[in-house]
Write a structure and sequence with these properties.
This protein is mainly alpha-helical. It is 63% helix and 8% strand.
């Protein structure tokens, strides 16, 4: 959800929230949705895309300020 995406400071944190809610499971190769997660997959995908966009904006702002640390 949008609220979850705003609260999570990273994609990994957001996925961990979904894992705690029983909507996603960590695998050897990454993440997958559970059957419950699949039922709300559109909302999960939107939240993940928003989190990625937020991270991109933060990186671009840092670069504009010549801050080359990894964030």
């Amino acid at each position: 959800s949008q609220t979850a995406a705003r609260k999570a400071s990273s994609l990994e944190e957001l996925l961990a929230q979904y894992e705690r809610a029983g909507l996603a499971v960590r695998t050897e190769k990454g993440w997958r949705l559970t059957p419950r997660g699949f039922l709300v997959s559109n909302s999960i995908i939107v939240a993940l895309e928003e989190a990625l966009a937020t991270q991109k904006i933060r990186r671009e702002q840092a670069l504009a300020q010549r801050d080359y640390r990894i964030i």
